[in-house]
Structures are given as C-alpha cells and as structure tokens.
C-alpha cells in the first residue's frame, strides 16, 4: 500500500520545499500549482481560472487511481485547504499522515515578496495568506512542522 502524506499550510509556508526534501525517485506529488503548469504552460502561480475544473478532475483521477493497487511507494498531496472535511476525506481514504507546515504569516509574506514568480501580485497573496490564517483550525492528530523559517 502507498504511504500517503497530506501536506497542509498557508501560501508561502514551505509545503513544496518540505516535500522536495522528502521525495524520492518514483514518489508521487500531487500539487495544484504543478498541475496548472503542466496543462497551461504558464509560469508557476499563473493560474487561468477557466482551467480549475479540469485541474481538480485531474487531481481526483490521480487520487482514484492511487487508491487501487499500484507500484507507488509514497505519495504527497500538497494543499492550502483549511477545510477539515477535505483533509479528513483524503486522510481516511488512504490512512494518510497529515503534516501541517505552520510558518508565521509574516514569514510567508516575506518569502512571497522575495519570490520573483509571486512578488508582482503581493495584494493577491496577502489576501490568500490572511484567509488561510483566519480559517485554519488545528487538525486533530496532525504532525505540526514549525521550523520552516530557514527555507
């Protein structure tokens, strides 16, 4: 059975960086940002809204396939969702480990401001970061990673 880890956190928290440190050849990483890149050929974080339903269908198809017998040792699902119901659905379906990257909002925004792929849309990112911190509630049983400031 595939070992699945759901990685949650605010934009700029270090989710992708944390996963990059864990992942090995042949592991599966499901990340909405990367799916957008793959089908739009747009730069990272440029997400045409009209593609969202296709992106979500791709993610859901990958999850459906992952639930069947496969050769994948580990899978990482990166998400910014604050909805416990979504996290719970994946966690119970795959008996997944849930990791929350808890990086202070000021650090998230500093990283975003220093990232040339995102710095030109700071107001947009500020809104997303604030929304995450407003809506996030601790997820029972999650492993909390707090030392992501050095990322």
What this model shows, in words?
This protein has helices at residues 15-22, 32-40, 52-66, 84-94, 105-114, 122-135; strands spanning 3-9, 28-31, 74-79, 97-101, 143-145. The protein has 6 helices and 5 strands. The N and C termini lie far apart (31 Å). Helix content is 44%, strand content 17%. The model has no long low-confidence stretch (mean pLDDT 93). α2 (32-40) crosses α3 (52-66) and α5 (105-114) runs antiparallel to α6. The chain has 151 residues and is an alpha/beta fold. The protein has a 5-stranded parallel beta sheet, with helices on both faces. It has one domain: P-loop containing nucleotide triphosphate hydrolases (Rossmann fold).
Topology overview:
Elements: E1 3-9, H1 15-22, E2 28-31, H2 32-40, H3 52-66, E3 74-79, H4 84-94, E4 97-101, H5 105-114, H6 122-135, E5 143-145
Helix pairs in contact: 2-3, 5-6
**DSSP summary: helix tally:** 6
Strand % is 15-25%
What CATH first level would be assigned? Alpha Beta
Class from secondary-structure proportions: alpha/beta
Rounded radius of gyration (Å): 15 Å
Helix and strand element order: EHEHHEHEHHE
Give the tally of β-strands.
5
Q: What is the assigned CATH homologous superfamily?
A: P-loop containing nucleotide triphosphate hydrolases
Main beta-sheet annotation: 5 strands, parallel
